[in-house]
Structure prediction request, 319 residues.
Amino acid sequence: MISSVILAGFQTTVQDCGRVGLRKFGVTPGGALDSVSLRLANLLVGNPDCMAGLECSSGRVRLKVDVDRLVAWAGGEFKIRVGDDLIPILHCARVSAGAAIEISPKRGGRAWLAISGGVDVPEILGSRATDLRAHFGGWAGRVLRDGDELPLGGESKLCSRMRKEISDVVSDWSAPRFVPRGRFLRVIRGKNWEDDIGEKLLGQKFRVAMNSDRMGLRLEGGEILPGNPRELVSEAVAPGTIQLPPSGAPVVLLGDCQTIGGYPKIAHVITVDLGHAAQLQPLDEVRFELIELEEARALLRERERDVALFRAGLEARFG
Prediction:
C-alpha cells in the first residue's frame, strides 16, 4: 500500500510530533512545526494523533494512493482537492484507489496532510520525523522528490467506521480551528529579559527575512541592541526561544532549532502561538505582545482541553 508522489513541491517532508526526551543528547525535537494541526488532521481520519503525515510549504504537491483512504488537512491558506472535489480545512474526505490528491498554496504558509494508516516510514529514535540538518528520519532523511513512493500503514477499525459514515466525498464532521491572532505572537519574558530591550521588542514591527527556515525565523527591520553586550555560556534553548545575536536583530527559534545556544534569550513565544509562527513567510510582518507565564499555561490547558473534547466526541460517535 503506497502513496506515489507525482509532484513533490518544495520542502515537503514526512513529519510526526517529533522526538521527545533526547535534547540532552543534542537531538533536536523536530516534527511538525504546528503539531496541533497535524494532531487534528490525524484524529479526523481515525489515526492516533501523532501518526506521521506530510508537511507542505510551497509549490504544488500531487499524490496518488493505490488503495481507498481517508485524508484530512490543517494549516495555512491552501486549496486541497481529491479529484474535482475541494476539501475544506479540518474535514475528512474519502479518496478512492488511484485518485489524485492535489495540494496548492493560495497564499502559503504550511499545511499538514494526514492519510488514514499514516506514512509508514521507519521509526528512528522514537519518531518518524524528518531531520533535514542531520539527514535522518522521514523519507531517506530528506525532502520528498517527484517519483518517491511512500509506504502507508494499515487502517484502524475507527477509520473503517468513519468511511461508512461519509455519504459523498467530504465528511459532515470537522475539527475545531484555532484562528491566528493577526500578526501578533504572544511572548513571556526570557532569562535575559531587560526592560529597555523588552520595550524595543514589543514596540516595533519586524519583517521575516528571506533566509528563515524550519530552524528559525530571522527578523529584520528593527534592531534591539543590548545595553550590555556580553558573551554568555551556552545553555538550553527550545522552539519559541527568541535569541538576540550580535547583529541586534532577533531570531525566533522553531522546531528544528539547535538544543543549546549562547545568545541572550530575551523572550519565548508561548506554546499555543508556535503554530502561528510556523505560518509566517519571508516578508511577512510580525509584532510581539507580552503576557505572563500563568496566562500562557492557562491558554495551553484550554487548547489541550479542546483537542481532548474533540477526540472524545469522535470516539463517542464512531467508537
In short: The longest strand covers residues 100-115. The mean pLDDT is 92. The two ends are 25 Å apart (CA to CA).
